[in-house]
Design a protein that fits this description.
- About 40% of the residues lie in helices and about 25% in strands.
- The protein is of the alpha/beta class and about 260 residues long.
- It has a domain of about 70 residues.
- The strands form two sheets. A six-stranded mixed beta sheet has the order 6-7-8-3-9-10, sandwiched between helices. Strands 2-1-4-5 form a four-stranded antiparallel beta sheet, covered by helices on one side.
- The termini are far apart.
- Magnesium ion binds next to helix 1.
Length: about 260
């Protein structure tokens, strides 16, 4: 059984409106090996997460979750496979009209498998994990940005997933907020969850990741460890870590031609 665990993308291509976002893209998320996907804004990082979740369908290539090819699954089977994955979306995406507790518990309520008191206990446990059990009856508008992110994490944990995706979880947070998210991610990893993150926040990426994927112009240009990444000779990676005037002029020239 364990031989098939993990998530794979093999030669995945994806095009939107004639524009190639991903070309022959490969990704491996092995249980216990936490990964961060890097690349400039708009390159296709969120798209990768959506493809794995089955929210978008690739033009070609293969995506598997714990050994199951997600192409051509019925909606019902896809839901069952997807239950092992939770995502903390960019911005948190909480429902403003629901309390914190309702936000964390609504999917369990929808699933209709647990009693209200069982759900309440899970909601409190997950909120306690992120240090926010005191806020259960508050509304999102009453929370800081960092607290909202932590509620979004509690919500992601409610269904007890094996894999947790984080889309830019520290963007816009102050240093304490960033630290809290890093610590939560490390604790989740310590409890056996596998994380896949998209970020531009390199200190956080280095703090919580074992491996890195770098995407440039629709292709995977790097897959390796922190040391390998820092020593990479790939031009796009060197530019990412130390932007230079040449990229600015390159950009301006392109603008002028348009
Ligand atoms: N629904 C859409 N229609 C057209 N283009 C889109 C759509 N969604 C995303 N894109 C484009 O696809 C590219 C990749 O988007 P995304 O995966 O969100 O990038 P990233 O997360 O790396 O910033 C972007 O250039 C974006 O403009
Ligand atoms: Mg994105």
């Amino acid at each position: 059984m364990t031989a098939h665990r993990g998530i794979t993308m093999e030669k995945v291509s994806y095009t939107i409106g004639g524009r190639v976002i991903l070309r022959d893209f490969d990704l491996r998320l092995e249980p216990g090996v936490n990964r961060t996907i890097l690349g400039v804004s708009g390159v296709g990082k969120t798209t990768i997460l959506k493809l794995i979740l089955g929210l978008l369908r690739p033009d070609s290539g293969r995506i598997t979750i714990d050994g199951t090819d997600i192409a051509n699954l019925t909606e019902r089977r896809l839901m069952a496979v997807r239950r092992h994955i939770a995502i903390v979306f960019q911005g948190g995406a909480l429902f403003d009209s629901m309390t914190v507790g309702e936000n964390v518990g609504y999917r369990l309520l929808e699933a209709g498998k647990l009693t209200e008191s069982e759900i309440e206990a899970i909601v409190l446990e997950k909120l306690k994990f992120v240090g926010l059990d005191q806020t259960v009856n508050l509304y999102p508008a009453e929370l800081s940005g960092g607290m909202k992110k932590r509620v979004a994490i509690a919500r992601a944990l409610a269904a007890d997933p094996d894999y947790i995706f984080f889309d830019e979880p520290t963007t816009g947070l102050d240093p304490i907020g960033v630290y809290n998210i890093q610590q939560l991610m490390l604790r989740l990893q310590g409890e056996g969850k596998t994380t896949l993150m998209v970020t531009h926040d390199m200190p956080t990426a280095f703090a919580v990741s074992d491996r890195f994927s770098f995407i440039n112009e629709a292709r995977l240009v790097f897959d390796g460890t922190e040391t390998e990444l820092k020593n990479s000779a790939v031009p796009a990676i060197r530019e990412f870590f130390a932007p230079s005037a040449s990229s600015l002029f390159h950009y301006v020239e392109q603008e002028d031609e348009a």
